[in-house]
Amino acid sequence: MPRTLDGQITMEKTPSYFVTREAPARISAMSKDTKLLVVVRDPVTRAVSDYTQTLSKRPDIPSFESLAFRNRSAGLVDRSWSAIQIGLYAEHLERWLRHFPARQMLFVSGERLVRDPAGELGRVQDFLGLKRIISDKHFYFNQTKGFPCLKKAEGSGRPHCLGKTKGRPHPEIDAQVLRQLRDFYRPFNRRFYQMTGHDFGWDG
Fold first, then answer.
1. Is 157 known to sit in a ligand binding site?
2. Could you tell me the domains of the chain?
3. What are the cysteine partners in each disulfide bond (predicted)?
4. Ligand-binding site membership of 138 (annotated)
5. Is residue 166 annotated as involved in ligand binding?
């Protein structure tokens, strides 16, 4: 990481850190004072989105249902499939809490980031000790993508939206499959809510 001067914040983003076993100890060894931001979303929607991305690169992969279950009729979910495993947030968080106190972590709601980007980024700015300068006026909602976009990117006169790999339509998944996955994730979600002190509302 580059050296950070007084009054500066150095940021780095890698989605796989949260689920990589070695990451908490390595980051703690580098700097115990690191603040950690983790964007989380409904693990069922996340799993479908993960599958959608893989499907766009490899159209010949098996169906979502066959990958998600070891035994569908018994409702036995395949925890070893990465699309399922990543959504077990409570298990990943347990590893991080061995190296960092909860006060150094902020869990950002992916759903709220889409619904109210300025509000959720207000929490991020507060957590990082920054003055709140990002507000609603910085965003517009892109109907095609289904995401908010920045009205003007830094140093550019053009709006900035997430890339073309984001906002793809998801394949149709059997409602019963989604129900079974919600049931599977419920105890993990509830434990995660307790650990973070925040109910993300994924069990509705």
1. no
2. 17-134+175-196 (3.40.50.300)
3. 149-161
4. no
5. yes
